[in-house]
Amino acid sequence: MNWFQAFVLGIVQGMTEFLPISSTAHLRIVPYLLGWEDPGAAFSAVIQLGTLIAVLVYFRHEIVQLVVEAWKSLLQRNLWISDDSRLAWAIVVGSFPIVILGFTFKDYIESEARSLTLIGSSLIVLAIFLYISEKVSSKTRDISSLSVKNVFMIGICQSFALIPGCSRSGSTIMGGLFLGLTRESAARFSFLLGLPAIAGSGLLELFSLFEDGLGQEGILNIIIGIAMAFISGYLSIELLLQFLKKYGTLPFVIYRVILGTLILSFWA
């Protein structure tokens, strides 16, 4: 990989991480169409750190509040001392499914699971469930109304993102809609719930790459990829929130079905 490829893939990662269209699918299909080698699951996970930073910056006030309340709850030995502390610990609990399944199926995810056939199929299947969730959702609840059980259920949905093509944001937004969250609340919560998973996978893969020996060019490519993922990711957060308010998830459903069909028809 050269610096230009890292530049392009960083932009792709940032643009697609938060939109419910699967960043993994696009990081697989874009290099394929351009005649580049597959960047691999490790590089894809590492440049997610750029989108992690984007979330931390964009939602800095909410995140600081959650951390402060969680710390207070520890000091006072009452994890449910406030709505924010309850939400903070619920996010920790909701991260368990993707962490456990991610470690269990790590080798499969990084190898066989990156096939274009699986990615194309996953794009279409999740599109169907995202469409159903949009139709049946009451869209009346906000994040503060979520119970620990609710968050754990959304966490299970988030773990579907381990299947390339499903999309972490798409899976969590789907789960939030099934539980009656408004579209904006479902999207905002998908950002918050994804923080532990993105940080964990990104840092683990980064340490692994350093152990294998990156070299100066490899380090430069990662820095470029992370930087571009941060910039494009930050911009796409606001885009998604405003887009969902106005148009809902149907355009993403249509896009997923079209892309999945094209992959299965011509490239798989």
Keywords for this entry:
0% strand, 268 residues, 79% helix, mainly alpha, 13 helices
What does this structure look like?
This protein is mostly helical and 268 residues long. The protein has one domain (3-267). 79% of the residues lie in helices and 0% in strands. The chain is built from 13 helices and no strands. The chain has helices at residues 3-17, 23-34, 40-58, 60-75, 83-94, 96-104, 106-109, 116-136, 148-158, 168-178, 183-212, 215-247, 250-267. The longest helix has 33 residues, at 215-247. It is globular and about 55 Å long. The two termini are 23 Å apart.
Summarize the structure.
By secondary structure, the chain is mainly α. It is 79% helix and 0% strand.
Layout of strands and helices, then pairs:
Blueprint: H1 3-17, H2 23-34, H3 40-58, H4 60-75, H5 83-94, H6 96-104, H7 106-109, H8 116-136, H9 148-158, H10 168-178, H11 183-212, H12 215-247, H13 250-267
| Form type | globular
Proportion of residues in helical segments: over 70%
Output the structural class. Answer: mainly alpha
Poorly predicted sequence stretches spanning 5 or more consecutive residues: none
Query: What's the structural domain tally?
Result: 1
Biggest β-sheet: count, sense, barrel?
none
Please state the CA-atom Rg, rounded to the nearest Å. 18 Å
Number of helices: 13
Number of strands: 0
- Averaged pLDDT, please? 90
Through-space gap between termini: 23 Å
Q: Please provide the ordered H/E string of secondary-structure elements.
A: HHHHHHHHHHHHH
Strand content: under 5%
